[in-house]
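User: Need the bound-state model for S-adenosylmethionine:
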Amino acid sequence: MPETFYTEKEYRELGRKYESVHYVLHRICQEREKKVNGVNKKYYAYIPNSTYRVIKELHLVLGHLRKKDNYRTPNFLDVGSGIGMIMELAKRDFASPSGIEVDKKLIEEQKSLFGQQSIGNVHNGDALKYKEYNKYDVIYYYVPIEDKELERKLERRIERQMKVGAILIANSKVDLQIQKSKKFKRLFNGHPIYEKIRK
Ligand SMILES: C[S@@+](CC[C@H](N)C(=O)[O-])C[C@H]1O[C@@H](n2cnc3c(N)ncnc32)[C@H](O)[C@@H]1O
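Assistant: Bound-state model below.
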């Protein structure tokens, strides 16, 4: 596992490369979402986050963690990992990126896009029932659940279970109690990145 992290220049280059993939995926997913929403309003269909934003966030988090005395390569979890693009972006600088994904078809798509080994750490199941959030150093999500109450429930579950010292990258967060919580510290202005500082 390399002990490097993205420089400003590298993350721009990588972002440019993945942004075109992101654009195509987004068009496909918009179509798919229209179909899925007709049937099941509970879950968002796969909508990829902006690669620029994600790479910037990973860069900031790694920079923060590497300043710690006890630094070791952090592990990583994407909650609602879709086709595994975020896991793919994280694999250079994080120890064996993991994912949870409810939609089996997306895991199949991940396998054909990124290979069998890419799905080794993907748990096919419901993030609302997952019990191992305390295993991760960095937890990422991009609003997996469309139903606001269920999304809130998921966000609180993650915040309750994650360990002290772990970092949450919470894109398009629904439940904002974290901003007032004494258990969490917001690390960067303009980015929804929080560190759990007490139990
Ligand atoms: C908005 S997409 C985000 C995809 C990816 N994390 C990203 O940032 O590009 C949300 C993903 O969460 C998955 N999802 C929705 N509800 C879920 C649940 N309860 N448990 C696990 N995955 C879920 C969807 O299938 C979809 O792939």
